[in-house]
Amino acid sequence: MPRTNDDSWDITQSVGATALGVAAARAAETASDNPLINDPFARVFLDAAGKGMWSVYADPDVTAKLVEMEPGAQSRLQLMVDFMATRTAFFDEFFLGGADAGVRQVVILASGLDARSWRLPWPDGTLVYELDQPKVLEFKESTLREHGAQPIAQLVNIPIDLRQDWPKALQDSGFDPSRPSIWSAEGLVRYLPAQAQDLLFERINSLSAPGSWLASNVPGEGFTDPDKVRAQREDNQRIRATAAKLIDAEITDFDDLWYPEERTPVDAWLAERGWDVTALSFPELMARYGRSIPQGAENSMPPTKFVSAQR
């Protein structure tokens, strides 16, 4: 279903279902022979959610049947697992780098189902604010609580749509804009219209004291190329239709969830406002972690840039 300005979702619907897809890729990487990351809670979320598109990554039997029916799916599935593994490693290292530098105030925008408050070795005194849709945070917290997990950091959940006045909600929950902060906007920007992207970073910039850190993955050059967008959509529709038959369930059309609009380059925008910025393309990030894009999957994902910055 196409997006609207006031749409909402739970964990198995719309944008919420993408969080389960990410968790499935993290679970697959964690269970691999040489994992780049360790996310022991990813599988917990999948088991709690039941069957869905994420089963393509999480259930080896479903994966094998899909590859048998769609031989080209193998490289695409591996690329998605590698993408999420390297993306997770990038943000994990970023968070811990900021913590090692002494920053103890963390804001995770669109926190989804990555349980960083529970799984990263946060220093004593670290306060983490997680913001996301109310039903997403409720699912995550209740699932982990039932599993007996306790957050390592001091966690403050802020159930809010990021298109609303989240800076007010954040400050009402104890956030101190006079202190340095670690900010992340992971897997978020492509699901915002271009204007909402600009507002998001304007708000972050206004709340960031000197010494703050910021990281995000953002659309790269060629993100809106019509030929690439059309080819990716056709491939995704074919694989989605096959997967839906295998799991006998309706599958969200993820291509309807993001906004293929021309955007302000985030790295340049931050640099103009005094941030010290580093940007990596997805192939560069893969190489950084000793991975490479599988043959045949070179054009199967939208161009992505990984931006990290310090003020």
From TrEMBL:
It is an enzyme of class 2 (transferase). Its EC number is 2.1.1.-. One of its GO terms (biological process) is methylation. Keywords: Methyltransferase, S-adenosyl-L-methionine, Transferase. One of its GO terms (molecular function) is methyltransferase activity. Pfam families: LCM. InterPro entries: Ppm1/Ppm2/Tcmp, SAM-dependent_MTases_sf, SAM_mthyl_Trfase_ML2640-like. Exhibits S-adenosyl-L-methionine-dependent methyltransferase activity. Belongs to the UPF0677 family. PANTHER family: S-ADENOSYL-L-METHIONINE-DEPENDENT METHYLTRANSFERASE YKTD-RELATED, S-ADENOSYL-L-METHIONINE-DEPENDENT METHYLTRANSFERASES SUPERFAMILY PROTEIN. This is S-adenosyl-L-methionine-dependent methyltransferase. It comes from Mycobacterium numidiamassiliense.
